[in-house]
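Reagents: none. Just compute today. Peter pan protein.
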Amino acid sequence: MSSDKSAPNDGIPRSFVFKRGKVSIAAADLVKDIRQVFQPYGFIQLKVRKGNNLRDFTAVSGILGATHMTILTSSGEGTTMRIIKLPAGPTLTFRLKDYSTMADMHKALRTEHLPQFAMNYPALCITAGFKNQTIKDTNPGLLKALELCKTTIQGMYPELNVAEVSLRSLKRCVLYSASDTGAITFRHYLLRHPLDAESESLKVLLGEKRLSLGHLDTIDDISTLKVRNPKTDLDRFFRDKPVKLIEMGPRYTLELIKIEGGLTTGLVLYHAYITKTEEQIAQTEKKARQTRGRLDK
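Predicted 3D structure written out:
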């Protein structure tokens, strides 16, 4: 396993993105696209050898400054995406329900290719719908799982200093949107700024270090910058400062299957299809400790 550069331990999130085993050509292209999304911290020239395993990546993660892994695998049941927080979890496992690569999006929408200059700036992470009232009423366990997904996903992107960052300095944004069923859709946008030379601080827009737009109804609300209440901070901020959002791809939809507390071997915190008793949970935790002990030797 080799990478294009080493990274200091500066606290900036960095992601390994790779495939395991045989996947389709389209899925392999998706891996390359996701690396582009995480630029300039995505190890775009990462080379994975056939014999590499997860422990290899964990071993070098500290040296390279890697904080997360995104892994695509395929089986007869379809393609799976795992998102892992290094070095000790959690591990989020999703079924990749559908996806389109950057090339697919460019062909379908006839949009421009992602310009190279935009890759020099990390994307702003936007989340929406993760506190869905419908899910809260019908499946509280899934709602808690989605909250952990949101925290893990946000941690994959650099924090935004709202006191210093101006709107004009943002070149890209990503949107993770949870539906009423818990499916998570991903979109990647290029930001075009027909703005004056001076732009205001994002402090008026953001109340936290990362932007959360849970009050928006759909992805189209993001694209058109329409909200239910015209007097919100978002509406006031963009009213006289139009920002054109151009979808670059990739685009995909995830269905959460399970969450493990450790690095693929920890206690199962959530499973979409299996509900365990307290005794079964205790047994699983015991086995997880034994497995971790063997891996640490």
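Helices lie at 25-37, 54-64, 102-109, 133-138, 140-154, 219-224, 233-238, 278-296.
Action item: order primers for follow-up constructs.
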